[in-house]
Write a structure and sequence with these properties.
The complex is a heterodimer. Chain A is an all-beta fold. Chain A is built from no helices and eleven strands. Chain A has a single domain, classed as Immunoglobulin-like (Sandwich). In chain A, a hairpin with a 5-residue loop joins strand 7 and strand 8. The radius of gyration of chain A is 14 Å and the shape is globular. In chain B, a hairpin with an 8-residue loop joins strand 9 and strand 10. The chains are: A mainly beta, B mainly beta.
């Protein structure tokens, strides 16, 4: 079974440019999450999709970040325009469970996209 | 706001030695997770701890949970080089949906 895949693995852009990150979750997983780790700090939640709907986007830092999940399958996270503080590793995770407390709620992570804004 | 603290953040140890990584969290949580990450790889789920007193073991790693103390430990027994990685603990709460709140991670290096 294929795991969570993220593309690209590494992106280097200049301040003010636009970058789009992609995540393909495990097939059949309704839940998709985006997280970010900045400067070796803790991994922080950005948002949560259930199928194509945004369940919780309370962690999105500002309106320069736009996440979509087309047809409830893959997801994209666009940063426009990118700023220096957006540098970090962006992780995507997916899970199968439908309710909190469901044992299938274990989140499976991708390898991340390392974004460097210069 | 839920906060999760791990210590130590960096750990260098000799093969064959034992050591413990600690994970404290600030408010009642529903579940506690331990993940392992090798450089450039995905986070791999190691353990899920659901209730007070839970203990799980896999190979040289053993995780435990004390919900009264809001503390989880990850104990390493007779470390080997292959255990070198970054270890994260994370918690979730029913009131915050299923999002995870992570500690900063413990970077473990096991030296021959």
């Amino acid at each position: 079974e294929a795991g969570v895949t993220q593309f690209p693995s590494h992106s280097v852009i200049e301040k003010g440019q636009t970058v789009t990150l992609r995540c393909d979750p495990i097939s059949g997983h309704d839940n998709l999450y985006w997280y970010r780790r900045v400067m070796g700090k803790e991994i922080k939640f950005l948002l949560h999709f259930v199928k194509e709907s945004k369940q919780d986007e309370s962690g999105m830092p500002n309106n320069r970040f736009l996440a979509e999940r087309t047809g409830g399958t893959y997801s994209t996270l666009k940063v426009q325009p990118a700023e220096l503080e957006d540098s970090g590793v962006y992780f995507c995770a997916s899970s199968q469970g439908k309710r909190h407390g469901d044992s299938r709620n274990i989140q499976y992570f991708g390898a991340g996209t390392r974004l460097s804004v210069l | 706001e839920l906060k999760v603290e791990q210590n130590p953040l960096f750990l260098s140890m000799q093969e064959g030695k034992n050591y413990t990584i600690y994970c404290n969290y600030s408010t009642t949580s529903d579940r506690l997770y331990w993940y392992r990450q090798d450089p450039g790889k995905s986070l791999e789920s190691l353990f899920v701890l659901l209730s007070n007193g839970a203990v799980k073991q896999e190979g040289r790693l053993m995780a435990s949970l004390d919900t009264k103390a809001r503390l989880s430990t990850l104990h390493i027994t007779a470390a080997v080089h292959d255990l070198s990685a970054t270890y994260f603990c994370a918690v979730d709460m029913k009131t915050s949906g299923s999002r995870l709140t992570f500690g900063e991670g413990t970077q473990l290096t096991v030296n021959p």
